[in-house]
Design brief:
Layout (H helix, E strand, L loop, with lengths): L2 E5 L5 H10 L5 E5 L11 H17 L4 E4 L2 H6 L1 H7 L6 E3 L2 H8 L11 E2 L4 E6 L1 H6 L1 H7 L2 E2 L2 E6 L3 H6 L3 H18 L5 E4 L8 H8 L4 E3 L2 H14 L11 E4 L3 H12 L6 E2 L1
Parallel strand pairs: 1-2, 1-3, 2-11, 3-4, 5-7, 6-8, 6-9, 9-10, 11-12
Length: about 270
């Protein structure tokens, strides 16, 4: 009954931790493609191929349902995967929709027409590839009207986080927030459109100010997954063991993961 969680590197661990806390009985298999991180500077075909390879590896672990805990993969690859590649007995879900539903105050599965919402000015911080895909704006348009979204590509932040350089990551966050606020001086809400970014969420909040509500994805995805599995229990796979897999160096990745999450994690080679 294992569920797979895929990310380009360490960021998806924020989602996995939230799922584990929300559903402690659920076996989870995590795969970080640390060998090829970051995805945010790659082209769409490269992201698609790498994501398909990662999902296939998780299927081998008995995970019929895989969460793409990588916004870049969700933005650049998920729709194509679902339309052209995914077998009928498997499911791959992204991380955008639960956050948009929270932002627009819609319940999971609410397919009513788009409507006016309270928040009108939204800042989106994401990787260059996610921003270029406009996937967030596309999904938002299905659910809300009259919302102004200003997107800021945050080059370098994922690299700094993966390298363990928190000082550089925080400095880059401040720079990217400053750049966005030149175009949207008074955002009402901010979306952290990369699962790496909760690791520096305090830096985003500090740069944005206390009046801006910052949305990150981990808890929202955990709640949505629980609801999905209640409705579709047939996609609980046959796997029974929780594991942490990486395409990179397991010792190095284990050290970085432990550093960021403040508890010990041991990775194995994928």
């Amino acid at each position: 009954m294992a569920v797979g969680v895929f990310d380009s590197g360490l960021g998806g661990l924020t989602v996995l931790d939230a799922i584990a806390a929300h559903s402690p009985e659920l076996p989870l298999v995590y795969l970080g493609d640390n060998k090829h991180t970051p995805y945010g500077v790659r082209d769409a075909d490269d992201i698609f191929n790498l994501t398909c390879a990662g999902v296939t590896r998780l299927w081998e672990e008995g995970c019929d349902l895989v969460i793409l805990a990588c916004n870049t993969a969700s933005a650049a690859a998920l729709k194509r995967m679902q339309e052209t590649w995914l077998p009928k007995d498997k499911r791959v879900l992204g991380v955008f929709v639960p956050m948009i539903e929270a932002l627009t105050e819609r319940r999971w599965g609410d397919n009513s027409p788009p409507r006016e919402v309270e928040v009108k000015h939204v800042a989106l911080f994401a990787t260059p590839a996610t921003v270029a895909s406009r996937a967030f704006q596309r999904e938002l348009a299905f659910r809300a009207i009259g919302v102004d979204v200003e997107a800021q590509p945050c080059g370098g932040v994922v690299d700094a986080i993966e390298q363990g350089d928190e000082i550089l990551a925080e400095a880059l966050v401040a720079s990217h927030v400053e750049a966005l606020k030149r175009r949207m001086p008074h955002p009402e809400a901010a979306i952290l459109g990369c699962t790496h970014y909760p690791l520096v969420q305090a830096a985003f909040q500090k740069a944005l100010g206390p009046d801006v509500k910052v949305y990150s994805q981990a808890q929202l995805v955990a709640e949505s997954l629980e609801d999905y599995l209640k409705r579709r229990p047939e996609f609980l796979g046959e796997g029974t063991q929780s594991r942490y897999l990486t395409t990179g160096d397991p010792e190095r990745v284990s050290g970085k993961a432990t550093q960021f999450l403040r508890h010990s994690i041991r990775f194995e080679s994928a």
